[in-house]
Amino acid sequence: MRKIAHFLSTISLLLMLTQSAQGASELPTLGDATSGVVSAQQEHELGQVFLKMINSQVKTLNDPELTSYTEALIYRLAETSELQDRRISLVIIDSPQLNAFAAPGGIIGINAGLFLYAETEQEFASVVAHELAHLSQRHYARRVEAAQRQRLPSMAALLGSIILAAAGGGDLGAAALSSTIAGMQSEQLRFSRFNEQEADRVGIRNMARAGFDPRAMPKLFERMSRMEGSGPQMEFLRTHPVSRNRVADSLGRAEQYPVRNYQDNPSYHLMRMRVIVESSSSPENTARRLTADLETGHTSYPFATRFGLALAQLESGDTSKAANTLKPLLASTPDNVYYRILDNRIRFAQGQQKEALANIKEMLRFTPDNLPLTMTYADMLFQDKQYTAATRVLKTFSRTRPDDPEVWYQLAEAAGKAGDIEEVHKARAEFFFLTGNFDDAIKHLEYAAELPGTPFSTKTALKERVTEIQEYKKRMKL
């Protein structure tokens, strides 16, 4: 019932936002982001509201290493895409289902399950390129134009359905999406199929420009088509139907590009292994399986399997085995940041806290503001009960990633342990704002302003932030 209530409230809110964005009856030509039924700026604002709802209603995967890798891949593809507004926000959904989506305003959503089903970085990139193409061709704005002609709130309904599907709404999300599509006329259905074909075409072209194998898209589509109907893990196929014609069309377009020797980024396979280990309910069982894979040679990427084994062994508390397992990887590639982070996590768990902290701090000296290194350092400081130092690190980092809810959440936790009440309230306020809880955000800012001894300049800044949030609520009709 709570999911249904969330869905209905989401639909109502998105419908209001969509209706407020509708103006002129003509859309600009492709790539023109200056005017139309929904302007690029209106799409961005709508997307930010949608992102706040995702953050508040859906379980996300807050893994700094996974986030850093995926963001880098998205920006690599964005650089060669037709996307004009490159303000992109990533959200990784903690779900084993194969799914990905794009939402107005540069929102890219990826289920952790995509790492499990995409066997290579090329295949993973093909899904990202497809979703970026939806954004660059402004398909959501065009859906509003089509819906306006038919007096249908399709954009709001589809966004609400995405939230349900991402939240693991399963059949409820599918039913909501099906009823939305069923309410559209045949012209709108053809419009949707055209969008998918266009996203394939533009995505394949973008993959080739970015140095990825365009043939990976039809290869993944063909494998997914064989799995169609195999269960709820294939949620992607409900929103991105894969027909034989679509596979053939994408293959024909990909074959127009010359054959090259494409090399996968080894980091993809390390991140894929992180998802496998983190999604396991028993790290001990995962360690046994990965050990068997290494011993029998039943692995295409032994380095990734070894990395996953060391990670599983650390998760199960067997730090000695984890250190021995990781040792050959460190010897072969001593500068690999993922190996070094894991190595120092193992050292920290073995009681070598001072050495591990010094190692991570030294790495940060050469790559300041690195997401996985910074969050690892702050986490180690927190575990070592150096709460004031952890607060200082996260407070500085929040200026680099002001729109990352996890940074603000961890900052509030560290500040609380450090006894910095003002910082607790300010961090919680930003966390609540980014997760759509505007009333609590305002309350915490007011609490901070009322603390005894708060300087006048700080009170003024806090009151200005309250005003900003109030004006945001009013502008976005929240």
TrEMBL record:
Keywords: Hydrolase, Metal-binding, Metalloprotease, Periplasm, Protease, Signal, Zinc. Its EC number is 3.4.-.-. Zn(2+) binds at H130, H134, E196. Binds 1 zinc ion per subunit. It comes from the Bacteria. This is Putative beta-barrel assembly-enhancing protease. The active site is at E131, D200. GO terms for molecular function: metallopeptidase activity. It comes from Kistimonas scapharcae. Residues 1-23 form the signal peptide. Functions as both a chaperone and a metalloprotease. Maintains the integrity of the outer membrane by promoting either the assembly or the elimination of outer membrane proteins, depending on their folding state. The lineage of its organism: Bacteria, Pseudomonadati, Pseudomonadota, Gammaproteobacteria, Oceanospirillales. Residues 68-249 form the Peptidase M48 domain. It is found in: Periplasm. The keyword Signal applies. Its main location: periplasm. InterPro entries: Mito/Outer_Membr_Metalloprot, Peptidase_M48, Protease_BepA, TPR-like_helical_dom_sf. Belongs to the peptidase M48 family. BepA subfamily. The keyword Nucleotide-binding does not apply. Its cofactor is Zn(2+). It is an enzyme of class 3 (hydrolase).
